[in-house]
Amino acid sequence: MDVQQLEKLVIALAEQAEECEWIEFKLNNSNPQEIGEYLSALSNSACYHKKDYAYLIYGVEDDTHNLLGTDFKPLHTKIGNQEQENWLATQLNPRIDFNIFDFDIDNKHFALFRIPATRNTPVSFRGEYYIRIGSYKKRLDEHPEREQKIWNVEKQLVFENEIAAKNIGEDELLRMIDYPDFFDMLKLPLPDNRKGIIDRMLQEKIILKNGNGYDIKNIGALLFAKNLEDFETIGRKAVRVIFYDGNSRVNAQKERLGTRGYAIDFNDMIQYLDDNLPSKEIIDKGLRQTIRPFPILALRELAANAMIHQDFSISGTSPMIEIFGNRIEITNAGKPLIDPMRFIDHNPETRNELLARFMRRLNICEERGSGYDKVIVECEKFQLPVPEILAEERYTRIIIRERKTFVQMDKTDRINACYLHACLKYLSGDFMTNQSLRERFELESKASSVVSRVITDTINSSLIKMINTDGNSKKYTRYVPIWA
Fold it and tell me: What is the pLDDT of residue 258?
């Protein structure tokens, strides 16, 4: 925040009728132990009261709320040889990303600690838990009903409805939100006055009225920001596209950072991918053809999924699309909520249903359950291996590798291809057969015994099952996924 924003914030907080449980005013009491206890108490109290932040402000008199200034400069204070800010952070558990601001108002110095509300885990300082009760700092264990509510608050919070920018005026609102594209993407006529524009944004619930100003919700900023960096809470969630020279991350060739909101930047990002994806020349039936090794439609779906399914509570990460010589990797924060083997048939579950619903409405992603199907269809069409899914605790990564012939595939590649081919057939109302799998692998009829071995391996892996046979011949046997 700049000095003007800080001054506006301090004045607004000082105008509170009384010192509430998520604001603390001080003059010069700079005892580091007490500051740490207040960081714990205020973070826990902000969580309890469903506030985004709590504030510890130096330079405002407790009783009168007069702006008197302070001698305390926390950013220039040390505990032993350690910066006070870092010392405080190391004593908090879990660590919270608080900010300290030193600044002047009318030649008077002020210091402000902006403290984020904890989520579902109370914050302790040096092993002790605190909370504000009225204007007093208390031990949290003396108030078990409040502690229980803090443990449960994560279930009540919806990231998209939290506030990205608070109490801003009309001019700033219309500067920060790309309202022409907002109306264009919703296929609505653009009103000829700002009241009509703002009323529609209120109706679509991407902003809220706040006194004489407005709050921009996370969903509004994520989708329609002119510049994501204008919003501190989501500025680092911009999608990165990186092209590498070769098959490793040693040499990055070029990079694109999507600084605008997801919705208004999406088509430009996909066009950038399409313009820069590698191509190869082949000779087919005596004719020279240029082909793309990777399907842009599959990348479109995976990019949208990475935005929708990311875990916004994991800080310092953003959706990423990395293009190598032999593969493409799409990564988002968070572990998937369903088994990756059931992506193709399971109704998708997401942490961010409001974001998913809005992006479907804007035709950025597919209807429920059909997006990943399209990815598999495109990979089959391009004769690519089945996408590899790495589901770790803090991230999900999907890898699309370049085309492999049947001979180049290993046993796992063949089993996965067989399973997903059976899934696609079943979901389209059909059944996998030896013939359909041979066609998927581009093999001739004399290779039916080779394909039968792949089918047997897939059955033994408990991924598919047969549903009928014609005598002793497996020629007309039909197969379905194990879950069918």
Answer: 93
pLDDT along the chain (484 residues), means of 10: 86 80 89 94 91 92 90 90 90 88 93 89 93 91 89 72 91 96 95 95 94 93 96 89 93 93 96 87 62 86 92 86 94 86 70 89 72 82 86 90 88 91 87 91 89 93 82 73 86
Predicted TM-score (pTM) of this structure: 0.67
- C-alpha distances in angstroms, 107 versus 7, 112, 113, 145, 480? 12, 16, 20, 44, 76
Give the 3-state secondary structure of residue 89.
helix
- Alpha-carbon distance of 268 to 274, in angstroms, equals 10
Position 238: which residue type? A
The full length of the chain comes to 484
> What is the structure's pLDDT at 221?
96
Encoded tokens for 348:
């998708």
For residue 334, what are its two tokens? 């968070």
CA distance 473 to 257: 56
Q: Are strands 252-257 and 280-284 parallel, antiparallel or unpaired?
A: unpaired
Structure tokens at 354: 């409001």
Handedness of CA 280, 326, 276, 304 (dihedral sign): positive
* Cα–Cα distance for residue pair 327/307, rounded to 1 Å: 20
Q: How far apart are CA 53 and CA 73, in angstroms?
A: 21
pLDDT of residue 469: 58
**Domains of the chain and CATH, by start:** 3-157 (3.30.950), 161-235 (no CATH), 240-401 (3.30.565.60), 411-481 (1.10.10.10)
Beta strands in 39-162 (DSSP E): 53-58, 78-79, 82-83, 92-93, 99-105, 108-116, 124-125, 128-133, 136-139
What string of H, E and C letters represents the secondary structure of 313-341?
CCCCCCCEEEECCCEEEEEEECCCCCCHH
Which two tokens mark 205? 């619930």
Find the Cα–Cα–Cα–Cα dihedral 366, 371, 374, 375, rounded to 10°: 130
